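Shipment paperwork, digital attachment
Item: protein structure file
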Amino acid sequence: MRVKGMVFLIIGLACASCGKSEEEVQEEFEAIVAESNACNDTSECVYASPGCPLGCFVAVNSAKKAYVEGEARALIEDYEVGGRSCQYECTVPGPLECAEGRCQEGASP
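Attachment content:
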């Protein structure tokens, strides 16, 4: 019985350093953005800068920007636990708009 406990402990410690996959953090981040980008007017929208691998920028309600960026940092830390990292070269985002009740990047003029 003691050997089984040690095996589970070793497996648990090994997986603790695995971190979340890129797909996992992206899915979680998409859900956070979906609950944070509601708007009635374009003036409520701003860009948040999550970072790699979650994107260069994402349109959200200004009241939720700090929350979205904080959650992004936590997800990126989970992703980087196993030594993974990435880096983007970001372009300048287009104009913002509030379309169908959601903040989003609008079409360039």
